Amino acid sequence: MLALFVVLLWGLNFLALRAGLDHFPPMFFAALRFAVLAIPVLIFIPRPDVPVRWLVLYGLGFGVGQFAFLFTAMRLGMPTGLASLVLQSSAPFTVVLGAILLREKLTRVQMIGLAVAVGGMAIIGADRLANATLVPVLLCLAAGLSWAFGNLGARKTPATNPLHVTLWMSVVPPLPLFALSMAIEGPTAGINAFARATHDGHAAFVALAYTVIAATICGSGLWTYLMSRYPAGVVAPFSLLVPIVGFTAAWLVLHEEPSVFSLVGGAIVILGAAAATGVRIPGGRQVSPELARI
């Protein structure tokens, strides 16, 4: 039940992201999200005893790259539900980067899973190209790749309290994201949007609070708790249910109607990601603890 609750929190988070992006520029919103979390972390949470370079890689990949690309894609018209699904590309990307950079061995099943996931992404890309622009899909794939690099940073930061590592990761993104916002969106774009939101954009602040408190602190905290108490192979498969919640919530609240090809491609991506990361749904063999932590 706790795992399903986390899936619900993370899936609904894409609605919060959409609400925030309706009021704030993408880079500024991403910077604001991490800044709100970073300030209390710096004051109250002791820094974990992990190498700084890997913590920085974790923050740049997971925080800066992922959300800069993801938020820009959503701002350019990437459907909310489809964004939650394409972001699952981070799983096969992580496996590939682990094999290339960390010399982790790939099994035959993982290689098949990677091929299947790529095929699913190709179906989604072809469908988007036929009905709209392909750029948002490519940006979402770049977000998944950035998340994968962040996973490698997390993989190299063994700690007794993974939640503290996750929280301290949030200290890295604000300054680079604020700098990107000033360079790309303009030095006053974020400030002007913030000022407007204080008058007529209260939904944006509710979305920001949900993203920080519900999705990050509660969701990540419960996930860390579950991973520390139960076998990885029992917990890890639940993360693949997040796009289902994302799709359903976007359909019910935002009235997004995904095409048949997007749904088929999405199902293929989830199956491929499950195979590539060594997960079977339900009750299959366990993933390795290293991949589970990623």
UniProtKB/TrEMBL annotation:
Annotated EamA domain residues: 2-124, 137-274
SUPFAM superfamilies associated with the record: Multidrug resistance efflux transporter EmrE
NAD found in the keyword field: no
Signal peptide: none
Main location: membrane
Compartments, as annotated in UniProt: Membrane
Segments traversing the membrane: 28-45, 57-76, 82-102, 109-126, 132-153, 165-184, 204-226, 233-254, 260-279
Pfam family, one: EamA
Superkingdom to which the source organism belongs: Bacteria
Listed GO CC annotations: membrane
Alphabetical UniProt keywords: Membrane, Transmembrane, Transmembrane helix
InterPro entries for the chain: AA-Vitamin_Transporters, EamA_dom, EmrE-like
Lipid bilayer topology: Multi-pass membrane protein
Protein family membership: Belongs to the EamA transporter family.
PANTHER family in the cross-refs: AMINO-ACID METABOLITE EFFLUX PUMP-RELATED, INNER MEMBRANE TRANSPORTER
UniProt name for this protein: EamA domain-containing protein
